[in-house]
Design a protein that fits this description.
The structure holds two protein chains of two kinds.
Chain A: H1 2-17, H2 19-43, H3 49-67, H4 69-77, H5 79-84, H6 90-111, H7 113-122, H8 128-155, H9 159-175, H10 185-194, H11 196-204, H12 210-234
Helix pairs in contact in A: 1-6, 2-3, 2-6, 3-8, 3-9, 4-8, 6-8, 6-12, 8-9, 8-11, 8-12, 11-12
Chain B: E1 2-11, E2 14-24, E3 29-33, H1 40-47, E4 55-60, E5 63-64, H2 69-75, E6 76-79, H3 91-101, H4 106-120, H5 135-147, E7 153-157, H6 165-179, E8 183-188, H7 191-195, E9 200-205, E10 208-213, H8 215-221, E11 225-233, H9 237-246, E12 251-258, E13 261-269, H10 275-284, E14 288-295, H11 299-307
Classes of the chains: A mainly alpha, B alpha/beta.
Chain lengths: 237, 314
C-alpha cells in the first residue's frame, strides 16, 4: 500500500501544480452556488435538496474532466513505460490515481459546505441527518463517476477522447432511470437497480440501505477492475 | 545475467522479433544494434516486463520475467526510448517519486540522491522544473532515475539519440564507468555512437540476430574483398590494360585520369596481399606511385552489409 500513497501524492501534486485543480474547485463552487442560492430563498425551505439535485448534474461533465488525464496523459507522454517497468502493481497504480481524483471531488464538496452554513444561520428545523446522508450520497456518486473517468482515461492516449468516453458512460448510468418509461416492464426492475439516481435518491432521503452501499461498492470495483485489466492487456498486444 | 531463449513477439500478423537467443553476463557492456524497426525496442521491452513475449523465455538473474516481474524490475534500471519524463515535475520531486516506489527513503534516499547527482552531473538543476531543462540535462535526469536504486542491470534504449557530440561523449563516459561493475545493455541504430563504449555487439535485423561478438570478431568473421586505390603518374593505356594479366587475382574496377595522373581502383580477396606485385609491376612499367591506399573493412561495413534489406537490390 505505500505505493498507492506515492502515486496518490504525486497525482495530487500534479493537480495543484497545474491550473486544473483551482479551475475545477472555483467553477464547481460557482455553478453549484448559483443554482442553489437562486431558488433557495424562493422555496423558503430549510434543506439542501436543491443542492443535492444540482451537484450530480454538474458532476456529469466535471468528473470526466478531472479524470481524463490520469492515465491517457501517461500513455501520451510515454511515462507509462517508466511506470510499468517499476516494481509497482497495476492495481496500486490505478487505485492511487482514482483516490487522487476522488480527493479533488471531495474537496469540491467541502467547498459547498458554505451553503450548509448559510442554512444553519437562516433556516429553522433543519434535518441534519438528511444533510449528512445527502453529502454521503454525493461522495459515493462522485467516487462512482471517478472510477468511470479513470477507466475512460485508460482506454485511449487522447485526453479529449477519454473525456468524451467518460461523459458518455456516466450519462448512460445517469439517464437510465429517466428512460424507464421506454423499457419493458419485465426489465424495468433491473434497469432501475443499475441506474445511479435510484440509489442516490434513496441515500439522500436519509435511508442508508446496504443494497445501495453494495451497489456503489460493486460498480466502483467493477470499473477499477476493468481499468487494471485494460492496462494489463496492453502488455499482450 | 540476462538469458533470452527462442524469444518471439508478434504484433498481430507482424513478426517483430523472431526466435532470438542471446546471453549477457554481469560486468559486460553490450550494444544492441540494428536499423530502425529491427526489433530492438520490442526485445528490450520484453526483458523489462513492459511487453509479454508471444513465445520464448526471458530469464533475468535466473528468474522468469513472466512469473517474477516485480522481483526482476527491482534489479533493473530501464531508460525507455525517447526518455519519457513528467515535464511539470521538479527534478527533485521526480527522483523522490521514483525512489519512493523503489522503497528508498530517508537517509538512504539522501545518499542515493547525492550519488546520482554526482554521477549524472545534475548539480544546479535539482530544483528546476524538468520542462525547463535542456535536452542533455533531461537525458541525465532520465539516467539518474534509472540508477537511483543502484541496480545490477542497466538497460538503455537509444540513450544518446538527439544529443550533441559533446553530450554523447559525456554519456558514453558515464556508461563506461557504470559498466565496470554492472551489466549494461544499450541499444542504438547508429553503430558509431556506441562502438567505442561496448565490449560486445549484437546486431539485429528484421527481428533476427545476424551477428553477435566483439567488434574484432565481427570483422574477422565477415569475409569481404579489400578495395585498394592507387594514384600513379606516367601510366600509359597499354600498361594499364595489362595490369590484371601481370598481377593475377586482382580485379580492376575503374581507372580515371585526373590532372595528368591516373586513379586506379582495384579489388582483391582478403586472403592475398598483391601490393608487392603491384609495386613491382609499377616499377617495371615506369609508373610513379603517388599513393596506394587499401580500404580495410570496418565495423560499419559489416553492419551495413548485414542489415541492408534484400529487397533494396530487387
Amino acid at each position: 500500500m505505500p505505493n498507492v500513497k506515492t502515486i496518490f501524492l504525486k497525482e495530487i501534486r500534479a493537480y495543484f501544480n497545474s491550473p486544473m485543480a483551482y479551475i475545477f474547485l472555483v467553477i464547481f463552487a460557482i455553478i453549484n452556488g448559483y443554482f442553489f442560492t437562486n431558488t433557495f430563498f424562493l422555496i423558503n425551505q430549510s434543506d439542501l435538496r436543491s443542492l443535492f439535485s444540482i451537484v450530480p448534474i454538474v458532476y456529469l461533465f466535471f468528473i470526466p474532466a478531472i479524470a481524463m488525464g490520469l492515465i491517457a496523459r501517461e500513455r501520451n507522454l510515454g511515462t507509462i513505460e517508466v511506470i510499468s517497468t517499476l516494481p509497482l502493481k497495476n492495481s496500486e497504480y490505478v487505485i492511487g490515481k482514482f483516490l487522487a481524483a476522488l480527493s479533488l471531488i471531495l474537496l469540491g464538496l467541502v467547498a459547498t459546505l458554505v451553503h450548509f452554513i448559510t442554512l444553519v444561520n437562516v433556516g429553522a428545523h433543519i434535518d441534519f441527518g438528511a444533510v449528512f446522508t445527502g453529502y454521503f450520497g454525493l461522495a459515493l456518486v462522485g467516487a462512482f463517476y471517478a472510477s468511470i473517468g479513470t477507466f475512460a482515461s485508460s482506454v485511449t492516449e487522447n485526453q479529449v477522447v477519454a473525456f468524451i468516453i467518460g461523459v458518455f458512460i456516466v450519462l448512460v448510468f445517469f439517464l437510465m432511470d429517466k428512460l424507464l418509461l421506454f423499457v419493458p416492464v419485465s426489465l424495468s426492475g433491473i434497469v432501475q437497480y443499475i441506474s445511479v439516481d435510484y440509489h442516490f435518491s434513496n441515500i439522500s432521503r436519509g435511508v442508508i440501505d446496504s443494497r445501495n452501499l453494495i451497489y456503489f461498492a460493486s460498480v466502483i470495483g467493477f470499473f477499477l477492475f476493468l481499468t487494471i485489466q485494460n492496462i494489463e492487456i496492453r502488455k499482450w498486444r | 545475467m540476462i538469458k533470452v531463449t527462442n524469444l518471439s513477439k508478434n504484433y498481430g500478423t507482424l513478426k517483430a522479433v523472431k526466435n532470438i537467443n542471446f546471453e549477457i553476463n554481469d560486468g559486460e557492456i553490450v550494444g544492441f544494434v540494428g536499423p530502425n524497426g529491427a526489433g530492438k525496442t520490442t526485445t528490450l521491452r520484453m526483458i523489462t516486463g513492459y511487453l509479454v513475449p508471444t513465445s520464448g523465455e526471458v530469464m533475468v538473474n535466473d528468474m522468469d520475467i513472466t512469473k517474477h516481474a516485480i522481483e526482476i524490475q527491482k534489479q533493473i534500471g530501464y531508460l525507455p526510448e525517447f526518455n519519457p519524463l513528467y515535464p511539470e515535475m521538479k527534478v527533485y520531486d521526480f527522483l523522490t517519486f521514483i525512489a519512493n516506489i523503489r522503497d528508498i527513503k530517508g537517509k538512504q534516499f539522501r545518499e542515493a540522491l547525492n550519488r546520482v547527482i554526482e554521477q549524472c552531473g545534475l548539480k544546479g538543476v535539482v530544483h528546476r522544473q524538468i520542462s525547463n531543462c535542456s535536452k542533455g540535462y533531461q537525458q541525465r535526469i532520465g539516467l539518474a532515475a534509472t540508477m537511483i536504486h543502484n541496480p545490477s542491470i542497466l538497460i538503455f534504449d537509444e540513450p544518446v539519440s538527439g544529443l550533441d557530440p559533446n553530450q554523447i561523449v559525456e554519456i558514453r563516459e558515464l556508461i563506461k564507468e557504470l559498466g565496470k561493475e554492472k551489466l549494461v545493455l544499450i541499444s542504438s541504430h547508429i553503430l558509431q555512437e556506441i562502438q567505442a563504449t561496448v565490449d560486445r555487439i549484437i546486431i539485429i535485423h528484421k527481428g533476427e540476430i545476424v551477428a553477435d561478438g566483439t567488434s574484432e570478431e565481427l570483422i574477422s568473421n565477415f569475409i569481404g574483398n579489400i578495395h585498394l586505390t592507387m594514384e600513379v603518374r606516367k601510366a600509359t593505356q597499354e600498361t594499364l590494360d595489362q595490369l590484371t594479366m601481370a598481377v593475377p587475382k586482382v580485379n580492376l574496377l575503374k581507372t580515371e585520369e585526373k590532372n595528368g595522373s591516373h586513379l586506379i581502383q582495384l579489388e582483391y580477396n582478403r586472403d592475398i596481399d598483391p601490393r608487392e606485385a603491384l609495386f613491382q609491376y609499377a616499377v617495371s612499367s615506369g609508373w610513379i606511385i603517388l599513393k596506394m591506399t587499401p580500404h580495410t573493412t570496418n565495423l560499419e561495413d559489416v553492419f551495413r552489409s548485414l542489415t541492408v534489406s534484400g529487397d533494396a537490390y530487387a
